[in-house]
Amino acid sequence: MQPTAELGTTAGPPSWLAAVLAAAAKDYASDVHLRPGRPVWIRRGGDFSVWEEDEQPVSEDAVAAARRWICPDSASTVRTVIAAGCRWRALSFRAGAVLRRIEAEPPVFEQLGLPEVVRDFTKFSSGLVVVAGETGSGKSSTIASLLAETAAMKQCHILTIEDPLEHVIPDGRSLVTQQEVPKECHEQALEEALRADIDVVMLGESRLPAHFELCLTLAATGHLVFTTIHASDALEVCERIVSGTRASGRSMLSATLRAVLSQRLIPSRVNPRKRYCATEVMVVDSGIKAVLRPSKEDLSMLRPKIDGTPYSLLRSLAALVRDGKISEEAAMAESPDPEEFEKILRAT
Q1: Residue 103: what pLDDT?
Q2: pLDDT at 144 over 90
Q3: 33-51: pLDDT as tens digits
Q4: Are residues 160 and 230 in the same domain?
Q5: How far is CA 23 from the centre of its chain?
Q6: How would you classify residue 13: left for phi > 0, otherwise alpha for psi between -120 and 50, otherwise beta?
Q7: 79 & 124 share domain
């Protein structure tokens, strides 16, 4: 299993790119896109736009120079580079390059706007915790924050398997090992974790049946496992895991699943660049465990149990509207049940 990038290169970027990256870091941009004959594009707070400080096209020679800085030996296409006081995950390809800023530290839990019950996920001694959401919904930031809390609170060995590495997790009272592993090697990395002296395992994204099965196996053998799944809610997470595993998958899920957090980011009512997190939290109790057990009971029976808790998506959306953070129209657009959302919002 080979890492895709070096820890970092200290050789500086071309001066024009150094200026772009410095401005991007100052403005908390997450990604910088370079294409010959096109202006620089950046992503900030989910918005993707042309860099307004200089909308002139970047020349082919300039992009070529940037690519040579990213991959001077031309043998690799991905490298972790250092510029503007930040680490960047840089990808070079024939048509240009993309640089993603790696956060020096995970966000503090209080900054994320998550329910306090989510912090309690760090108190589990073993089992599976899933953070779900669409691309760009903040899943990686949430897990990084939870891992930082775990490291600060416990004395344990934490292993992360990521591609790319997006946050640097401080050791705290623990030992944190972060591996930047190509996605095609994630299965192998999980198998190796089963044989290693690890307490907490984080897989950046579970996409394949083998990932689901290995995460369940790790959770069943006494590890605390965090992972993300591209799904809209807790019900879809459970359906994907059950459908993607063998006959024993549902039994293992009922025995090991501890909690599912699904989240989505919604633009602020007053500042389009700011977004607030709407959440649904499913903490597994005896009622949910009974639905998860192998039986004739359909997994859809999870829905009324989740909606009956204080942590449903509709209640989260209503609270954000009442607090003046998001508009009622934006909340309604995210609501899976507009009529029920209206009732909750109007309730005193």
Answers
A1: 79
A2: yes
A3: 999 999 999 998 778 889 8
A4: yes
A5: 25
A6: beta
A7: no
With beta carbons less than 8 A apart as the criterion, state whether 240 and 229 touch: yes
What three-state secondary structure class fits 231?
coil
84, part of any domain: yes
CATH code for the domain in which residue 205 is found? 3.40.50.300
Place of tokens 């329910």: 115
- 24 pLDDT exceeds 70? yes
Alpha-carbon gap, residue 84 to 66, rounded angstroms? 15
Q: Are residues 67 and 97 in the same domain?
A: yes
Q: Which of 47, 7, 24 is nearest to 100 (CA)?
A: 24
Cβ neighbors of 295 (< 8 A, separation 6 or more) are none
- The DSSP call for residue 70 is H
Pair type for strands 96-102 and 31-34: antiparallel
Give the CA diameter of the chain. 64
The CATH number of residue 89's host domain is 3.30.450.90
Distance CA 138, CA 320 (A): 17
- Is the model's pLDDT at 8 over the cut of 50? no
Is the N-terminal amide bond of 267 cis, ω within 30° of 0?
no
Q: How far apart are CA 85 and CA 66, in angstroms?
A: 17
In the chain, how many domains are there?
Answer: 2
3-state secondary structure of 166: coil
Q: Which of 102, 130, 152 marks a domain boundary?
A: 102
